[in-house]
């Protein structure tokens, strides 16, 4: 995996404090859990694992589309396997099939001991770049 200095920054990434690494057809998103990630039971909220997997899937999609394209989540089927409250969470996503318009992926969120916290399958739409606006 390669951590790119050109990774986009966006408010959710900054707020949750995660990092993104990409490989060809794959991506990894990691964060160190702290209180801002917890639900009222002092366990990481399920939305944290979901967000890591969704982000890792989107980053993986971006490694297999043409330059200038973007992507959007169509659907994500998520399963939660165990809770985590401390340590590092890492979501790993892999492209399973990549068409011109739809990319299918799998993802897993693991705790720092390599135990499965959550898993997901997802479909992402490939949004082709728009042609430049005509000038008069």
Provide structural commentary.
16% of the residues lie in helices and 40% in strands. The chain is α+β, with helices and mostly antiparallel strands. It has one domain: Thiol Ester Dehydrase, Chain A. A hairpin with a 5-residue loop joins strand 5 and strand 6 (116-127). The radius of gyration is 16 Å and the shape is globular. The protein starts with 10 loop residues before the first helix and ends in a 9-residue tail after the last strand. The mean pLDDT is 93.
Put the structure in a nutshell:
The protein is an alpha+beta fold. It has helices spanning 11-16, 46-61, and strands spanning 19-23, 26-32, 70-80, 88-98, 102-110, 116-127. The radius of gyration is 16 Å and the shape is globular.
Can you give keywords for this protein?
Thiol Ester Dehydrase, Chain A; six-stranded antiparallel sheet; alpha+beta; 16% helix; 136 residues; 2 helices; single chain; 6 strands
Helix-strand blueprint:
Elements: H1 11-16, E1 19-23, E2 26-32, H2 46-61, E3 70-80, E4 88-98, E5 102-110, E6 116-127
Main beta sheet: 6 strands, antiparallel
Over the alpha carbons, how many angstroms does the gyration radius reach? 16 Å
Total number of helical segments? 2
Compute the number of strand runs.
Answer: 6
Strand order of the largest sheet: 1-2-4-5-6-3
Oligomer status: single chain
What would the CATH topology be? Thiol Ester Dehydrase, Chain A
**CATH architectural name:** Roll
The CATH superfamily appears as Hotdog Thioesterase
């Amino acid at each position: 995996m390669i951590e790119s200095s050109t990774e986009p920054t966006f408010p959710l990434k900054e707020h949750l404090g995660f990092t993104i690494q990409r490989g060809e057809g794959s991506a990894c998103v990691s964060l160190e859990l702290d209180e801002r990630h917890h639900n009222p039971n002092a366990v990481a909220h399920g939305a944290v694992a979901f967000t890591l997997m969704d982000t890792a899937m989107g980053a993986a999609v971006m490694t297999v589309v043409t330059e200038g394209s973007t992507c959007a989540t169509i659907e994500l089927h998520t399963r939660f396997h165990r809770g985590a409250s401390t340590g590092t969470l890492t979501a790993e996503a892999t492209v399973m099939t990549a068409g011109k318009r739809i990319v299918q992926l799998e993802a897993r969120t693991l705790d720092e001991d390599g135990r499965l916290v959550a898993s997901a399958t997802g479909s992402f739409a490939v949004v082709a770049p728009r042609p430049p606006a005509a000038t008069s």
